[in-house]
Amino acid sequence: MALLVQALNRMKVLTEGNVSEVTRTFCCAQKTEKCLLRECLKCKDNTISYKPYQSTEVGHFFKWTTRKESYFDKYQKQKSITKTIKQKLIMPLDEMIFEFEGSIINFLKHKGRSLHQYNQISKKKESLMPNEVMIHVDFSENYSLKHAEETQAFHFGGSRQQICLHTVVIYFKSLEVILHTVPESEA
Question: Out of the domains of life, which is the source (predicted)?
Answer without folding.
Answer: Eukaryota
